[in-house]
Design goal:
Number of domains: 2
Shape: globular
CATH superfamily of the largest domain: Glycogen Phosphorylase B
Number of helices: 15
CATH architecture of the largest domain: 3-Layer(aba) Sandwich
CATH class of the largest domain: Alpha Beta
Distance between the termini: 11 Å
CATH topology of the largest domain: Rossmann fold
Strand order of the largest sheet: 3-2-1-4-5-6-7
Length: about 400
Amino acid sequence: MNKDSRPARVLMAVGKMDRGGMETMLMNLYRCIDRDRLQFDFLCTKPGNADFDEEILALGGRIFHTSLPKQVGSKQILEEMRKVMEEEGPFVAVHAHLLFFNGFVLLSAKRAGIPIRISHSHASSLLKYHSLKGKGYAAFMRRLLIKNATCLLACSRQAGIYLYGERAVRSGRVEIFANAVDVDAFEINPNAAAALRTQFGAGEETLVIGQVGRMIPEKNHVFLLDLARLFKEQGIDCRFLIIGDGPLRESLQQKAALYALEDVVVFTGLREDVSTLLQALDVYAMPSLMEGLPVALVEAQAAGLPCVVSDGVSKEADLGLSLVRFLPVDPQHKDAWMKALSVSKGQPRPSHEQVRAAFARRGFEVRENAARLYALYQLSPQNRGGGSDQ
């Protein structure tokens, strides 16, 4: 292949490409870009195979692994990242999605001579950075990434303040890059919805509540189990679908068994058919303690679902379709959650055309966001060069 016709390559720095919100957002973009013009490669800081690896390779991307950062010194991890950037490129840009660890990624990119160095914030808070040690690490890395970044992105204003500080956001240096989805993938299919409800033992009158997310403390799945227990105690015909996986899955399943919720709560595990699975729900629940701008909530609105969510979720996640209600997640508000979830069944849903229009207005249409990438990576319509032969 002639060098001038090769696609430009961008190195995405991630943990690993499992099915999470940020990873799903990246794959949505990857599927939409002109891959004759632009290609993604992935630098992973966690070992092992991941859910999206096979698709990445099929789309022409490459996957590189470093040592696990917490098991090696900072000098070694910086050298490993720099070596990948220099030897596997050329890369027109490094685009980092590792929150505060972006500081090390972008320092390595600068040492490797990569001109475009992008930090992308996807979270508004994480519990592990609330300790004194965590706060010290965050402050150091914040200074490092701001010094070495040529572009600062965030999924929401709140996520921008968390990673870069309020001064950077107020100055206008931080660009908002919405967690866009392919709206057409969520168009309602009544037959598919009915089949899935039957699969989960839900009748026409059953209230089906769902949550999609990694099972970590921030997602607050325990609150959902407490609600399921209250619904069952009151004899309400319901199903709670907990969709996803994570380190807390075993303890959550044990709690569900302790509450005798096996007939009410379904742990679906990781699913490739989330866009279809959402259609089986009557209402989406998100009791997260904190969120940047969750892709799962955006997807729920793309499916036209009523959503009851924590007031710890960024208000920017409400796309103006009258689908989202925010509530506190303290124990005193469980009755309010039960009422809000219950009245959502039968709530009128927007048409697919209304959903598509709202997403376009708010900048959440994936094809438009994919087009923004060419400008971020400074690729003109005629500029394809800079990729590797691989």
